[in-house]
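Lab manual, section 2.4: Encoding a predicted structure.

Procedure: take the sequence of the chain (116 residues), apply the prediction step described in section 2.3, and record the output as structure tokens. A sample record is shown.
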Amino acid sequence: MNQALIKKIEAEQFRKKAADFNVGDTVKVHTRVVEGEKERTQVFTGIVIGRRGIGLSEMFTVRRISYGEGVERIFPIHSPMVEKVEVERHGKVRRAKLTYLRGRVGREAMTVRERE
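Recorded output:
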């Protein structure tokens, strides 16, 4: 009974059109930022280095190099604060998690082969 009720409540929260991307893809994540009474859209561009979770709690991690430092952000896929996820380029990887990119420096830190 409880599981059915939880699934029914979660079904209302799901994003209608989920973005189609995988680990290794370079994406632009458009997020809504509220500053006081104003609201604006902020874009975070980087490589998807991992996905985890199922259902409503599914999340993905995006990494980029900003001023020589690695920056990672974790976004919930079904969050109302994430407006959209645009795929800039599809990457070809052979792993589920790209944590090895954390140890790289410079251009090689953002290098993932492009999918044909």
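Check your result against the sample. The beta strands are 26-35, 38-52, 59-66, 69-76, 82-89.
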